[in-house]
Design a protein that fits this description.
The chain has about 425 residues and is of the alpha+beta class. It has 19 helices and five strands. The protein has three domains: about 40 residues, no CATH class; about 140 residues, no CATH class; about 210 residues, MetI-like fold (Orthogonal Bundle), CATH 1.10.3720.10. Helix 7 packs across helix 18.
């Protein structure tokens, strides 16, 4: 008899790899999503203890041309009335109850539930009639259920009657607050919650209250808070020139190391690679001394010339040029092409994806450069974007929503460039020879 053993199905390694890549991708992209979400929030919501990925719907009014977050005065007055009434009820009935009674905790829980829901309701209801209806509805669902709780049976009959009277009186008090804090059906009193006029009250028509979830105006305010237009121009100018310079010098040096014969070629290439191991911070002071001696401090020369050539581009292109078949170079030599004609007419046209990869890497690294420009520039007119963003971070203080908005539009050009050139970029990384 043949016995078949049932084996548990093992998860495919490919599925595990995809799962790990997905988790890793979400982990990497989450900070960007959080930054983008924060850039749409109000300052109060950013500093709130309640964390939410999607901005909540808040109320605003126009004050001197600026949106200011407000709250209905009625909501604050209702909160105050609830707290006072809760304290009186607990004080009154605690004398008639044993120390171990659950009634005190029950009433505290119901009032807490009432207060938590109160804030949410006032994000949706506007007119006096809607507020009164909302109060009645969730008042019945929360505090209104107190007389039916088992713990109320511990109370003497006269105290139970007094509890119903107190809760009924609470309803009247809440209704009175609504009436007193609303001028008419179409006008409500509000309190400004932030800004220079924080704590001031105003009476506004309902149609002037603006309900917003995403504050697009944060991007405009961040853009106007610092000379970001100048920062962008500087970064674009510097990044483009450095990228062009590195592509040209890398192509020339890589072709020489890959296809030309000269003395000490391998040794020189190893020395060149060894320079990649030296941290930039180690040579920062000598580099600054040279730039200062040349008189280039706080000029474009200091931000461009030292980066015209880079070891990474030379190494990357050299590795690709060595994979090209020798037949191409032999045919070019027979046709009378010299080294420059071979490079520019044959090698570079078939290496577009590799060139684009080097250009993309160079552009991104130059765009994100911070330490060197921070040392070499001392005026706003010469600062690139990353330095300007660092200075804006120090000057903006606790305006985190503006800082996140500025950070968002500072990386948008890189994201756009990457998504446009994504196919060529991946091809340049994985390519090891000619197209078939």
């Amino acid at each position: 008899m043949i016995v078949k053993n049932d084996h548990k199905k093992i998860i495919s390694p490919r599925i595990l790899i995809y799962l790990m890549l997905t988790i890793g991708g979400i982990t990497m992209v989450f900070p960007f999503i959080w930054m983008l979400s924060t850039s749409f929030k109000s300052s109060l919501e950013v500093l709130s203890a309640q964390i939410s990925l999607i901005p909540e719907r808040k109320k605003y009014i126009q004050v001197d041309g600026e949106l200011e977050q407000v709250e209905f005065s009625v909501a604050r007055e209702l909160q105050k009335t609830l707290s006072i009434k809760e304290g009186k009820i607990i004080e009154t009935f605690s004398r008639a109850l044993p120390a171990q009674s659950r009634f005190k905790s029950d009433i505290s829980n119901k009032f807490s539930l009432f207060r938590v829901r109160l804030e949410k309701y006032f994000h949706r209801f506007q007119s006096r009639a809607e507020i009164s209806a909302a109060l009645h509805k969730f008042g019945e669902d929360t505090v209104g259920k107190l007389p039916s709780l088992p713990s109320v049976r511990e109370l003497p009959v006269n105290f139970r009657r007094q509890l119903r009277f107190e809760l009924g009186d609470l309803g009247k008090q809440l209704e009175a607050v609504v009436t007193e804090t609303t001028d008419s059906k179409d006008r409500l009193r509000v309190v400004i919650l932030a800004g220079d006029k924080r704590g001031e009250g105003a009476t506004v028509p309902l149609d002037e209250i603006i309900f917003k979830r995403f504050l697009w105006n944060n991007f405009k305010k961040a853009w106007q808070a610092a000379p970001f237009a100048r920062y962008f121009i500087n970064s674009i100018f510097i990044s483009i020139l450095v990228t062009i310079g590195q592509v040209v010098t890398s192509a020339l040096a890589a072709y020489a190391f890959a296809r030309m014969r000269f003395r000490f070629k391998e040794f020189l290439f190893l020395v060149l690679l060894a320079t990649m191991m030296i941290p930039k911070q180690v040579i920062l002071i000598p580099d600054y001394a040279i730039i200062s001696w040349l008189g280039w401090v706080n000029t474009y020369y200091a931000l461009i010339v030292p980066f015209i050539a880079a070891v990474f581009g030379i190494y990357f292109m050299r590795q690709h040029f060595e994979t090209l078949p020798q037949d191409l170079f032999d045919a070019a030599s027979i046709d009378g092409c010299g080294s420059f004609r071979t490079l520019f007419l044959i090698v570079l046209p078939i290496s577009k994806s590799v060139i684009l990869t080097v250009a993309l890497f160079t552009f991104i690294m130059t765009w994100n450069s911070l330490l060197w420009p921070l040392v070499m520039t001392n005026t706003p007119e010469m600062r690139p974007l990353q330095v300007g963003l660092a200075v804006f971070n120090q000057e903006s203080g606790t305006d985190w929503e503006l800082l996140m908005a500025a950070s968002t539009f500072s990386i948008m050009p890189l994201m756009i460039i990457f998504f446009i050139a994504q196919k060529q970029f991946i091809e340049g990384i994985t390519r090891s020879g000619m197209k078939g």
